[in-house]
Amino acid sequence: MLPEAPPLPVLTADFGSPAQWVAGRSWAYPDGGPVNPDDDKLDHLVADPAYSRDGVFRARRRPDGLWDTGLLTTEGSDEDIMVRAGDVLEARVRLPGVLGAWPAIWTWRDGGQEIDVFEYHPDNPDLLELSNHVRDAHLYHRDPAVAPGAFVDLRVEFGARSVSWWVNGALVFADRRGVGRRWHAHLIVNLSVSAGRYHPPPPPEATEMSFEVPALRVWSPRHRLWRRVISVPPPRR
Q: What is the phi/psi pair of residue 65, to 5°?
């Protein structure tokens, strides 16, 4: 019998690392960006490191009515890290307070494979949106600890048979749908800006907004450790 082993780290996010993260473009946006009006977004993606690379994701109003926004994705990076079925993601976020802010941590690959670790809109100040778009399950989770400016700890297990979400240490949703054994996808962290179709746009006096991700990591649980370690090549000398 194999001895018990610790979890296998997949990613400890270093948002400043271009080997881990690509800034300012994503194939979740038409043609890779920079805009996505059909999804009710005022975003104009920018690669400027001031908008994302320090873990604070910012948006600033442009003269044309769009907003320069920060987005990071593992898609297209040198390390090309993907989350896989069975992996666990943990993150700490600080929620924004400006009306129209739309922060999210989510997954994407080849036109889909989307799991929303969370989405948030300050017009619903106590509500997190938790969604499995792979197999059509979602929850609107209301919690007094969720509020503009609040720090929130999130954990998601991307189970093959059930995706499960924890908020501040409490299990709040197990969708019993899962992602399937072969699911895998890249990570996206970004701050979008609502255009007004589903949530109010920013007020005219607002010129900037932000949300913060002080920590994010992904790890593989013990039951997958040995299968993955066996496939690791020997170290280079």
A: 95, -15
